[in-house]
Please model this.
Amino acid sequence: MKTVLITGASRGIGKEIALAFGRLQYNVVVNYNNSPNEAVLVTQAIKDYGGNAVAIKADVSDFNEVLKLIDEAKSVFGDIDVLVNNAGVAYQGLVQDMSPNQYRKVMSTNFDSVFYCCKKVLPLMLYKHSGRIINIASVWGEAGASYEVVYSASKAAVIGFTKALAQEVGPSGITVNCVSPGIIDTQMNSIIDSDILDELAEELPLGRLGLAHEVADAVLFLASDKASYITGQTISVNGGQFCR
Model:
């Protein structure tokens, strides 16, 4: 039975990714930081499917906590076959109004965590000459967004990191890809005024916001054998945003 580790898996897109892997009978490591009750509910739902899951608290923007997270995951399930770097935070506001601490929180959570988790998990994958790494980016990492400049930069960094790492570890049988969600109906986007969300949905070719399980479906595909010849790519799940 394969094991997947998903960062930021207690809510939103991460939760749906965890549940999707659970339905496929993966061992699921549900990482969380500030939502212990929600994480327990996710693990219980996976167990109800007949799967195995454990919730592990760790702030993945802190390298020492990542070390403990991976070691605990190994102690429970023995190995990690798939890593999904999903943890992320948003910041909306003008660059000149953003404090250095706010900047560092966005960059460390959204990008540093990807580096930390990959650094720790890669030796396990290199040893067995196989593995899947899937990083959750954002449409704003591809196109940029005003009022979300640093968030956009952090996700652009994830995309660049993914492309380069795919070249580095491809000879060792490891694939590295991105899933880039557009405007998804999640708690993170609930801070946006509902009228603005409606306007954004109307501008999309598909005419609606995306759903978290649709992002999870793309992640499952990249983790599957059907995607064995895909690496260094960004799959955009965005309802056709910017395709015109």
